[in-house]
Amino acid sequence: MAYTGFELLVPAIERHLPILRVAAPYMRRFLRPRRIVYLASRPCLEALGRNGILSPIDVAMDEDEVAEGLSLGLVREILRLRGFDPARGGWYFKQIAILAYAQRFEAEERYLAWDADTVPLREADFVDDEGRTILERKIEYNAAYFRTMKSLLGIERQVEYSYIAEHMMFDRDIVRALIDAAMGGEAFEGGAFARRVMDSICEADFRGSCGFSEFETYGNFAKLRFPARISVRDSPSTREALNYFRLPPGGAQLFAMSGSYAWATFEAWTVSGDSLPARLKRSIRRTLGMLWTIAAAILHPVSCARFARIGRAVS
Q1: Domain 7-233 has what CATH class?
Q2: Which contiguous run of DSSP H or E holds residue 49?
Q3: How far apart are CA 176 and CA 95, in angstroms?
Q4: How many whole angstroms separate alpha carbon 199 and alpha carbon 79?
Q5: What is the maximum alpha-carbon separation in the chain?
Q6: 312/315 Cα distance (integer angstroms)
Q7: First and final CA of the chain: distance in angstroms?
Q8: Is the separation of the CB atoms in 161 and 137 below 8 Å?
Q9: Cβ neighbours of residue 208 under 8 Å, at least 6 residues apart?
Q10: Where are the chain's structural domains?
Q11: For an engineered disulfide with 126, which of 136, 169, 241, 309 has Cβ 3.0 to 4.6 Å away?
Q12: pLDDT one-digit tens code per residue, 176-191
């Protein structure tokens, strides 16, 4: 029987609203969480409500209230004092907040962090038959993540693959053990934990794209300290859905992708620029996406219609 006793944690910003309106019903249908917890700024949470994304059982949590002392403003100030662009603070803050969530008294035994711009396309289980939490195995490497992990926790990279996917199922008690290790025996406080993470990032890595990954850090920590409590799998996915489909995607487009992928991410950075070759390439891909959708709908009309109805479900 599928494990459904977890909560789904979705950090969101306002530019995610168009895809979240589409993704939320598919999250409920295919991921089957006990509830969805949206972490966002107060204006974004209000927009989620206005757009009908929140269901009656969902939780809208102000991101600055995840843990005492932890706030986006604090992380931005840490960056500013070190001479770096405070605008990068949101990237670090989101990751720190996802880990800090495990310290809340109401946190479930397991919680699934899921990227707001990602749509699940098939049913998925996140706990295997032996009761182990399932993590995704991916191909990615950023040396900065492991330098920070070494500084923060004193551990080395444990595997030759990456744990960075568009989601991760966290075991609350493993996260708490990770935080205890990072805090060096001191009592947890959100602001202090944020400073520990940020202080572990070297100057050179602040100048790069990012010097910390909560997924990579958690996966390697769990592999070292709690290897019997995790397993890995390889799931087909794409981060380039926007190269083939515009926002918001329709049910038929999602159905077409479901034949090849377990989830699809609509990341803006994957879309090429405005030069003539880039526009031509984008036009070709969008045409391929249209043909892909038409073929799927013609070959499987009943399944396509049923899939599309999921997206029209009322919250």
Answers
A1: alpha beta
A2: helix 42-50
A3: 15
A4: 10
A5: 61
A6: 9
A7: 25
A8: yes
A9: 144
A10: 7-233, 237-311
A11: 169
A12: 999 999 999 899 999 9
